[in-house]
Amino acid sequence: MREIELEEPRADEVLVRIAAVGLCGTDLHNVKGEWQRPTPMVLGHEGAGLVEQVGSKVSSLRPGDHVVLSWAPACGDCADCRRGRPAACVPLHRAIAAGTLVDGRTGMSLDGETVYRGTATGALTERLVVTERVALPVGNEIPLEQAALLGCAALTGIGAVLFAARVEPDTTVVVVGAGGVGQFVIRGAHLAGARTIVCVESLEARREQAVRLGAAAAVSPEQLEVTMLELLPDGADYAFDAVGAPETTALALRWTRSGGTCVVVGLPAAGARLNLDPGEFNRREKWLTGTMYGSEDPAVALPILLGHVRAGRLDLRPLLGPTYPLDQVNEAVEASLGGSPGRVVVTP
Ligand SMILES: [Zn+2]
Ligand SMILES: [Zn+2]
């Protein structure tokens, strides 16, 4: 725990008092050293909080508003931003790799030295300055610990189903991995009206969670073949790799039916490569694609998710795991690394 300096909000920025931050696989990649990132860095990008101060040009937010943070403070000007996909913005991804915002600054320092921002955010802190565009109003009905999950896991997992794969009703789905994102893929498939959802996950507590969330079966990787031959012998209409390792993507593609769609959702470790049989794509006409942050502008997708929450179709409570105060952030990271079935949340 260190006290850092924050720059004052600029005209188009807001100061957010952070109330809750979910720990995401992306944070764990950094903790495990699977990505090269500059340090010192404030991790955390799945945040929710209250607006405390607004810049002079901010019109959509007022102090006291509850907000969920999008981790895509994109450039606003590139081809991907113009097609409504701020999370695919190349300047944003360069900035994320450099630990900064798109303009190269971070607005955070420690004893005069730059402090870097995890995923262009850096939410594991009491207060954070972000641009108005990425502080998305969430209303006052949803507790902020639950609302935080919307900021990455839900937008990513449900978005993968609704906006990337566009899952149709009465179809079949395989989900590889039942961590935070995989659990929201299951909920998304349920929302989309999928008939049968099969989950493969190596941790027993997460398999139990997957069944509670609507999977018809949740099995270990060793049991998958027997289960699929029983339930979906031709494979599933859609398969989602919520892990993002080469072997999990291969498994998802293996159990995608001919003509079906396989979606890579989880982020791979740096340098990962896929080794695939091209016959999967011509002889069997499978589609392999991927999604970043749910393949929709978070400002568009979040109100859709909030609609499902308010209508009672999406209950966030079962997806929430243990919460830890900020000074126990290391225990929180340990719990997340240990495979907590619910999302581990830090409450500054
Ligand atoms: Zn995330
Ligand atoms: Zn852009």
CATH class of the largest domain: Alpha Beta
The CATH topology label of the largest domain is Quinone Oxidoreductase, Chain A, domain 1
Unreliable segments (pLDDT under 50, ≥5 consecutive)?
none
What general form does the structure show? globular
Bound molecules: zinc ion
Q: What kind of sheet is the major sheet?
A: 7 strands, mixed
Estimate percent helicity.
25-40%
Question: SSE string, helix = H, strand = E?
Answer: EEHEEEHHEEEEEHEHEHEHEHEEHEHE
The number of distinct helices, counting runs of at least 4 residues, comes to: 10
Got a strand count? Answer: 18
- From the 3D coordinates, which CATH architecture of the largest domain would you assign? Alpha-Beta Complex
Radius of gyration using CA atoms only = 20 Å
CATH superfamily of the largest domain: Medium-chain alcohol dehydrogenases, catalytic domain
β-strand percent reads 15-25%
- Mean pLDDT, to the nearest integer, reads 97
Class computed from helices, strands and strand pairing: alpha/beta
Structural account:
This protein has 348 residues and is α/β, with parallel strands linked by helices. It folds into 2 domains: 5-152 and 296-347, Medium-chain alcohol dehydrogenases, catalytic domain (Quinone Oxidoreductase, Chain A, domain 1); 157-292, Rossmann fold, CATH 3.40.50. It has 10 helices and 18 strands. The chain has helices spanning 25-31, 79-82, 90-98, 144-165, 180-191, 204-212, 224-231, 246-254, 298-310, 329-337; strands at 5-6, 13-22, 41-42, 46-54, 66-69, 108-110, 113-114, 116-117, 127-131, 135-137, 172-176, 196-200, 217-219, 236-241, 256-264, 287-290, 320-325, 343-347. The strands form 4 sheets. Strands 2, 4, 5, 9, 10, 17 and 18 form a 7-stranded mixed β-sheet that branches. Helix 4 packs across helix 5 (180-191) and helix 4 crosses helix 9 (298-310). The longest helix has 22 residues, at 144-165. The relative contact order is 0.16. Bound molecules: zinc ion (2 copies). One zinc ion binds next to helix 2 and helix 3.
